[in-house]
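Lab intake sheet, docking and co-folding queue.

SAMPLE TYPE: protein with bound small molecule
LIGAND NAME: flavin-adenine dinucleotide
LIGAND FORMAT: SMILES
REQUESTED OUTPUT: full 3D complex as structure tokens
PRIORITY: normal
SUBMITTED BY: R.K., bench team

The fields below were copied directly from the construct record.
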Amino acid sequence: MDNTSFPASDDAMVIIGAGLTGATAAATLREEGFTGPVVLVGAEGQAPYLRPPLSKGFLAGKESEESLLPCPEKWYAENDVELLTSDEAVSVDPTARTVALSSGRSLSYGRLLLATGAVPRQLNLPGTDLQGVYYFRTKTDSQRLHLELAGGGRHLVLIGSGWIGMEVAATARELGNEVTLLGLEEVPMSAAIGPRLGTVFMDRHSEAGVQFRLPASAKEIRGDDAGRVTAVVTDAGETLSADLVVIAIGVVPQTALAEEAGLTIGNGIQVDSGLRTSAEGIFAAGDVASALHPVTGQYARSEHWANAISGGKVAAQSMLGRDAVLDDIPYFYTDQFDLGMEYSGYGALTKDADVVVRGSLEDREFVAFWLREDRVVAGMNVNVWDVQEEIQDLIRSGRAVDRAVLTDPDSDLKTA
Ligand SMILES: Cc1cc2nc3c(=O)[nH]c(=O)nc-3n(C[C@H](O)[C@H](O)[C@H](O)COP(=O)(O)OP(=O)(O)OC[C@H]3O[C@@H](n4cnc5c(N)ncnc54)[C@H](O)[C@@H]3O)c2cc1C
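RESULT FIELD (auto-filled):
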């Protein structure tokens, strides 16, 4: 094993995880004027890319590989960022301040960012290793599934009724495939947005021909003698024939490196609101980090695109010793058929909140607000645009609102 330290410099910034968080952190370090060594360690064999299109336009074959890149591939070399695309970090020594890579190299760091993201939760069932059964996270997963779905006429069974399951269902159906979706909830996505609003999306899918089995769980995945999937058996004893199966039952944060290095873990790598871990000089951001939110006073992990960008920026500033805080209101979006949605808010505060609606659920053009003691804690716009700033202002203000004004589509949201 080659133990040469590379780079040798003590002021090196090392980032583990070449996803959107890692790429954003590297770009921010350079934008903020840092001129020392920056190393971005990735294991996927690719330059960093965006995942949201993987279940939408890219899966549909409408978006190019190039459109997925947060920075053009040449950006890294041009900005003197050492991008290692196929070298997994295998251990971190917080005392010696080194990272060991699978290639045998050892990197010294002054500051280290863990941006290792998340991986699909595995389904512990017979048959998950059959041909035609997919987990869904990477560009390669999306490219493989596209090849299977692009010609239409296949029968896809989706296991999981969350965002990714519903997005893949919509795209597969638009490509002319039969789609059956099963999940543990009675209504898709109700863990995040509740059954009443989840029904709006479910109805749109049903209208387009997506079949639902809810609540239902998969008990067995069956295959033929050639090892190719043929069916999914549900807990109700139904056998759903399947040419393809996608398992999308959530993700788990990749905390192994941090755990082995003795960092504090709690549903992700625990960090303060400046994204500092429990170890001196080590930071964590993106899907892997459970960050203390200065407004809610709670630790929360956000598995969304906007958090990867904001987290990457704040982490880089903290690494440079700046007084940065991640205090964004969590934000995410989805596109399913002709439904475009954006959501901002504190998910943890929406439990038992009142939901009020401005606009029409029937017409699928509305803004829903979650209210606690008349204060807006979250808001979601569906096929209504340019209202996120107002929604976030209402949440941030923490003031009591007038429900009549809030729910009247003709009134100015700022006056609610
Ligand atoms: C199909 C799909 C659709 C999505 N759609 C939306 C959407 O519509 N809206 C939205 O807000 N969000 C969406 N998301 C979520 C969003 O993409 C994620 O929140 C974001 O990718 C998180 O970025 P990250 O860099 O923190 O983690 P990741 O994207 O998981 O990147 C982490 C990287 O670290 C690498 N890595 C891990 N361990 C090591 C190691 N030891 N050594 C080297 N490299 C390592 C991994 O291989 C990976 O490349 C979607 C995600 C998926 C998968």
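REVIEWER NOTE: Residues 133-249 form a domain with the FAD/NAD(P)-binding domain fold (CATH 3.50.50.60).
SIGN-OFF: pending second check by T.M.
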